[in-house]
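#struct-pred

JT: dropping the chains for the assembly here, can someone run the whole complex?
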Amino acid sequence: MSLQKPPNSIKIIAGNSHPQFAEQIAGYLNLQIADIHVIDFANQESAVLVKESIRDEDVYIIQTGCGGPEKLNDHLMELLFMIHACKAASARRITAVVPNFPYARQDRKDKSRVAISAKLVANLLVTAGCHHVITMDLHASQIQGFFNIPVDNLYAEPEVLKYVKLKLGTSDLIMVSPDAGGAKRVASLADKLDTPFALIHKERAKANEVSRMVLVGDVKGKVCVLVDDMADTCGTLCKASDLLLERGARSVIAIVTHGIFSGQALARINQGSLAKIVCTNSMPLSNVAEASGKLEIIDISPTLAEAIRRLHNGESVSYLFNNPV
Amino acid sequence: MRKCKVFVGNSHPKLGQLVCEKLGIDPAPVTLKKFANGETSVQIGVSVRDEDVYIIQSGSPETNDHIMELLILISACRGGSAAKITAVIPQFPYSKQSKMKKHRGAITARMLANLLIMAGADHVVSMDLHASQMQGFFSKPVDNLYAGPTLAHWIRQNIENYSEAVVVSKNPGGTKRVTALADQLKVNFAMIHTDRRRTRDGFMGKKVRGKQPAAKINTTENGEVEQENVIVSTDIQTARIVKGHVVEDTSAPHEEPQVQHTSDIANDNSDDEDEPEFNASEKLITLVGNVQNRPAIIVDDMIDKHTSFIAAAEHLRMNCGAKKCYVVATHGIFANDCLERLNECEYIDGIIVTNTYPISETKAQNCKKLTVIDVSPIFAECIRRDHFGESISVLFDSLAVIT
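RK: done, full complex below.
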């Protein structure tokens, strides 16, 4: 019997939020997803059981923030339980892979007496026993500072650039930010594609509701590409698209990282003036994609798979910030 | 105010004094000195047992010394059994380092937040944090006050036909701040983008120039469209910047007297800390929006370096037809010769900042264009309300201007 350290071993655990995505990541890494069992008790509580040994293993738990009104909190709790279960089972290192970070929009006290829920979720993850977090296109990159563990915020931008260059070409394009907060993201894309950009400012009446819109920039005769980090109810995107067409745009395409599509979002897009909406597969979209002919999907799992591989092998992740996989 | 002590640090005694005057109390006695080896020493001259303690310390040119002083003050009050300690930090130091730069950056603002909490602060009051998400860095409550209403009030009072004005963000990252002010003033806004990557030829071809008549038509259009609840503006105007100054694109490679600035231009796209630092001396500056024949107001949260403001002002006045150009910010940090340079720039008509950050008297007197707005009433009112357990949210109201 030798006491030499066993080879660096890795385990991928998939939560119930987006099993297909986890499958894809594991596929790229040539790994099997570890066997876990989730028990749902009659009173809506759930329990997690990891069915193989993870002692001294490098564990990656893939769970995205999704599921709408019924399931989102369940998935978050499940993630916390899985982390805790791994901790109790003596995993060497636990990394939560959360492509779409839940509650990311509640990241500051924008009104009096609101909770900074993103901070709370960060604290919960750390308390549960997480050592590292991988996420993608955080709503505000300051959320990284809410954790006192390392956070790798990956960007979908390289894949989006690749998509635009291959599928749309860059002539006649104009990048448009649907709100003032996203101007930086759009300016960065526009620089890399060498296209002009414009922005729309909305004066919000209520959350998730759009009122007056102001367009700054000239879109006449151009193909407009609306870029945002997430599409939720799609009210903004549809209104923005109407406004752009009214201002003489040839057609309007939307590219978002996280396609949340709550409620009537896809029906709205199908009836609306958007020519196409492109999103990554960070959220489960299998049923949804069939429902909408306008939806196109960029596969982002290679980026996450590569990030996991690099992290596991102790290589630099920064290559992924500027290069598609 | 009973059971309340206000300590004033060395960073900005004048602001502390003003706040105390507004509160009608004297600053609590404290001896702040430095040992010969550079260590800071604090001696509190009054009992703080079971008292509500407020410590006013802003950023300053000697940031690190004053941070240490603040931490030691907090710790001394904690050791002196104060009931509650509130750090009042009008300009939060290191706030630009609030996120990870693309490669291996430290989130220094978070570290500073941890230090404050560790030292024993129970509550933090600041103004116009560089990113409002920074409130989440603290495990204790943070009140982020706004200078916006006060600045808007000044603009309404002092800028002729301000309703015609356009507020301009000098980089895409600051657009959100600018739109907030634009909404308050009910005026239009525009944005400037400076970029090093674009090829000049590729962009010049598409460039819109000499479009003055068209712009005028746009203005009338605005009127009609506004009634339908949609406003449209504009064309995009682009020019070249060489060594921090806007040049006519017809001119040959420009000869510039101020060659020594080449280095800071490279890293001064200000808000975009995460951008790689190129050493290019030639960039393209683009205005998105319309300022033709209107006063332009460049708004940002802080002024620390001058180059991007000057380039923006030159572009607005020379190429985009702005009538006047004002620079408005909450924190006037004015590193090095920034203030002098802004004052010398003929395209800037006024520099407006608040007194959250100390500006030396002689500097301020030599700068005729500078206006410093006093925000001590806001802090005084915040301290008073906090002490008596009243709501602070009225201070956030866009209409409330306390003078």
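JT: nice. The radius of gyration of chain B is 23 Å. Chain B touches chain A through 60 residues (CB under 8 Å).
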